[in-house]
Design a protein that fits this description.
Blueprint (H helix, E strand, L loop, with lengths): L4 H4 L14 H7 L4 E6 L6 E5 L5 E5 L4 E5 L9 E6 L6 E5 L6 E3 L4
Antiparallel strand pairs: 1-2, 2-3, 3-4, 5-6, 6-7
């Protein structure tokens, strides 16, 4: 299943650095992008927990499509897996170096 980095991340050449790596290139080739994933009880999609990646990756196994959801998150080793909340069905991602818990709500 193709991951559409170029649709979600900047493809212009950066002004600083060597000028050869776009944001989309960096996202596609970064190490340890995600640490685990959790299936949402709401939409049955898989949500990958950002480790080095800047955005949450949503994988729809029915349509075999990937997309990115939510805002961009900077930093490394941000969250270390996620669990489903008993009362609301949201995905709660456990902070590793992030300053707080990431809550992914796929209920619409």
């Amino acid at each position: 299943i193709n991951i559409p980095y170029e649709e979600y991340f900047d493809t212009s050449i950066p002004e600083k650095g060597d000028g050869t790596q776009t944001e989309a290139y960096q996202e596609r080739h970064s190490p340890w992008k995600y640490h685990g994933g959790t299936i949402s009880p709401h939409d049955k999609c898989i949500y990958a927990v950002p480790q080095y990646a800047k955005k949450v990756l949503r994988i729809d196994p029915v349509t075999e499509e990937c997309s990115f959801v939510g805002p961009k998150f900077e930093g490394r080793c941000k969250w270390y897996g996620g669990v489903i909340g008993n009362t609301d069905g949201a995905i709660y991602c456990i902070p590793q170096n992030a300053e707080g818990v990431l809550r992914i709500d796929a209920s619409g």
